[in-house]
TrEMBL record:
Organism: Terasakiella brassicae
Family the entry assigns: Belongs to the methyl-accepting chemotaxis (MCP) protein family.
Localisation per UniProt entry: Cell inner membrane
Pfam family, one: MCPsignal
A Gene Ontology cellular-component term: plasma membrane
Keywords: Cell inner membrane, Cell membrane, Membrane, Transducer, Transmembrane, Transmembrane helix
Record-linked Gene3D superfamilies: 6.10.340.10, Methyl-accepting chemotaxis protein
Residue ranges annotated for the T-SNARE coiled-coil homology domain, each copy included: 613-667
PANTHER family (UniProt xref): LYSOZYME-LIKE PROTEIN-RELATED (PTHR32089:SF112), METHYL-ACCEPTING CHEMOTAXIS PROTEIN MCPB (PTHR32089)
Protein name (record): Chemotaxis protein
Principal place of residence: membrane
């Protein structure tokens, strides 16, 4: 049978393995190159962005440091000290409205205001302005500051280079809203520290039409240490924006920003912004002063960020740079495309080489395979191919040649073994005939003897069956008699049980009656005691009524005497006579009432005696009933004892008859089992006889079969 046909032949596996290995190797090289290139590009971009950020941060720090240095120098120069003192004096004499008209209204454009020195202002302020304004103007132009302002100790802006709309105004007012500039000036005035330089963070400055501006300032102190005023410089946005706007090294998508501690933009290449940034790199830079991170930008692009802190006086800002990762990794993407093209070309080349190599190996292998298939099908005369080759395929061909020669020897050996087998079979057949003759003789004699024994067993089993049937009939008669007796005994036991239950019920009821009569006797005794107590109470009430009658008679007598005495007294005793008459009337009413009470008490005493007599009669009858109940209870108890004796005898009789019935039932069951066993034995003997007959027939057939086989052999 031919095997190995299909996809899993060497003609397909070898080219597939060569091409697959080439594909995997080129893919592995390409992927590792792309990943390595991407990692190198990302690290290089981080290093480059870090260097750019550090450079921009250094430049901005220099601007802030120079601003601080300039403020300290200006705050200590005699020209500034003299100027602020002179402007303070002139401001007070010229007045706010006069200065604004002279320097703002009469010079409508910002250029005119900045260029006006005060040529036509002959006031003291104007003279000081002509002396100091050119100096301050040239100073901010040379240093690149947008504005310079001077404030007196009341918060009045007494001088500014550009004379914006807030010139000559008072910025420290209670009703004015707080602004960073107001807070700056107020703090410097309040603190009065010679080395204190403060900054006002970017805010919407009204004098610049709402544009954002930041300021820094310090106090101006005289030689004696007294504070004379405050000088303020505006942060130079142009210099900061020029630094941030330098896109060299940032690519097409990169930019540089100045961010405050609150995340708001302080400066961009187009000026201060209003966007708020919430980036992890800023949080990391707060603690580390410098950080890099890849995050998703507001437009959803992966972006590389670098941040470094800068000190804006007492505030912390960040120089933040960014560049999109797509632009950073673009060389890696180009490299991956080139690697892909190279991999495809290399894949095609290796595939062609693999196909050629596989054909040079597979073709001779197929010929050797066919030769082996022919040998397996019995063709041992063919020529073995590739015997002349000196490589592994030649070794395989020599192995096939050896296999073919071995197969020839095996064929010769099988033929010799077949002849020997035929001779051995003839000898075995003769021995089997002899065995068959002996088997036929011995089994015939044994079967004859077994038939004799089986006939005897059949006769004995019939006699046992008759005996078992007679025993079962007698046992059933005895069992029926025992069951009838048991039923009668059970009837007697049931009647006796009912009699006992009735007797117990009578005893229970008599017990209740006894307790009831006892309770009634006790209740009658209690009632008699209560009635006797009532009789005694009534007698006591009679005594009290008699006492009241005596008191009423005495009161009547006294009222009579009082009436007589009142009559003797004449007109003076009339009132007393009336009272005596009233007392007499009450005494007579009391006497009448007590007489009625006495009659009722007598009636109650009479009825109480009748009640006591009736209760005594009831108590006697209850006692008689109680004695009768005790007698009945005693008789009922004796009757229950007799009934228990009857129940015990009936139970013993019932138990005896039940034992007899159980014994007879067991005997009947054993008889039936014996009868069934005898029948089964009789059936088994018949089957045994049939089996021996079949066995004899089978032995005869077996012997005949052996003889027939021997004859055919």
């Amino acid at each position: 049978m031919q095997t190995g046909v299909g996809f899993f032949t060497l003609s397909k596996k070898i080219p597939s393995l060569v091409i697959g290995a080439a594909l995997l190797s080129t893919l592995a090289i390409g992927i590792s190159s792309v990943l390595s290139g991407s990692s190198i590009l990302e690290e290089a971009s981080k290093t480059r962005l870090e260097a750019l950020t550090a450079s921009r941060a250094t430049q901005i720090n220099e601007i802030f440091q120079r601003l601080k240095t300039d403020l300290n120098l200006l705050g200590q120069t005699p020209s500034t000290i003299k100027g602020v003192v002179s402007f303070t004096m002139g401001f007070g004499s010229s007045g706010r409205s006069g200065l604004r008209k002279k320097y703002i209204t009469n010079n409508p454009t910002p250029e005119d205001r900045k260029a006006y020195d005060g040529e036509d202002d002959f006031s003291f302020y104007g003279q000081q302005h002509k002396q100091n304004h050119p100096y301050f103007r040239s100073l901010i132009e040379s240093y690149g500051y947008p504005e310079l302002m001077l404030f007196d100790l009341k918060g009045n802006m007494i001088y500014s280079v550009n004379k914006r709309d807030d010139f000559a105004s008072k910025i420290i007012k209670k009703d004015e809203p707080d602004s960073p500039l107001k807070t700056l000036v107020q703090t410097l005035i309040d603190e009065k520290k010679t080395d204190l330089v403060l900054a006002a963070d970017y805010f919407s400055y009204p004098s610049l039409a709402g544009q954002k501006a930041a300021f820094a300032g310090r106090g101006i102190f005289a030689q004696d240490g007294n504070l004379e005023g405050v000088i303020v410089l505006q942060v130079p946005d142009k210099g900061i924006n020029a630094i941030l706007g330098d896109r060299s090294g940032l690519g097409e998508s990169g930019r540089m920003m100045l961010v405050g501690n609150d995340g708001l933009l302080r400066g961009t290449s187009t000026g201060p912004g209003t966007s708020k940034l919430d980036l992890p790199v800023l949080s990391a830079a707060k603690s580390q002063k410098f950080a890099t991170d890849v995050s998703v930008s507001e437009d959803g692009r992966n972006t590389l960020y670098a941040a470094q802190t800068v000190s804006f006086f007492d505030k912390v800002w960040f120089v933040l740079s960014e560049q999109e990762m797509d632009e950073i990794l673009k060389p890696a993407h180009d490299l991956s495309n080139r690697i892909l093209i190279t991999s495809v070309a290399l894949f095609i080349l290796i595939g062609a080489v693999g196909m050629y190599a596989s054909r040079s190996i597979v073709s001779p292998l197929q010929k050797i395979t066919q030769a082996m298939m022919n040998i397996a099908n019995g063709d041992l005369e063919q020529e073995t191919p590739a015997l002349s080759r000196s490589d592994e395929i030649g070794s395989m061909a020599h192995a096939v040649e050896v296999f073919k020669n071995n197969e020839k020897e095996a064929v010769y050996l099988r033929q010799s073994q077949e002849a020997e087998r035929i001779r051995s079979e003839a000898d075995k057949m003769q021995a089997m005939l002899e065995i068959a003759d002996g088997l036929e003789q011995r089994t015939g004699e044994a079967i004859q003897q077994m038939n004799t024994v089986i006939e005897m067993l059949k006769s004995n089993s019939s006699e046992m069956a008759q005996t078992s049937q007679a025993t079962r009939t007698k046992a059933q008669d005895v069992q029926s008699f025992a069951q009838t007796t048991s039923l009668n005994v059970s009837t007697v036991a049931s009647a006796t049980q009912q009699l006992k239950e009735s007797s117990l019920e009578i005893a229970h009821e008599m017990d209740k009656a006894t307790h009831t009569t006892k309770d009634a006797s006790e209740a009658v005794s209690g009632a008699m005691q209560v009635v006797e107590g009532l009789s005694q109470s009534v007698e006591s009430i009679g005594d009290i009524v008699e006492l009241i009658q005596n008191i009423a008679e005495q009161t009547n007598l006294l009222s009579l005497n009082a009436t007589i005495e009142a009559a003797r007294a004449g007109e003076a005793g009339k009132g007393f006579s009336v009272v005596a008459s009233e007392v007499k009337g009450l005494a007579m009413q009391t006497a009448d009432a007590t007489e009625g009470v006495s009659e009722k008490i007598a009636q109650i005493n009479s009825e109480t005696e009748l009640v006591i007599k009736a209760l005594k009669d009831i108590s006697d009858k209850v006692f008689e009933v109680q004695n009768a109940s005790v007698g009945i209870a005693s008789a009922t108890e004796e009757q229950n004892t007799s009934i228990d004796d009857i129940n015990q005898s009936v139970g013993e009789a019932s138990s005896g008859t039940q034992h007899i019935s159980d014994y007879m039932e067991d005997l009947t069951q054993h008889s039936e089992e014996t009868n069934a066993s005898v029948e089964n034995m009789h059936t088994a003997i018949g089957e045994l006889a049939h089996s021996f007959t079949v066995l004899g027939n089978e032995i005869d057939a077996f012997v005949s079969s052996i003889r027939n086989t021997s004859n055919k052999g």
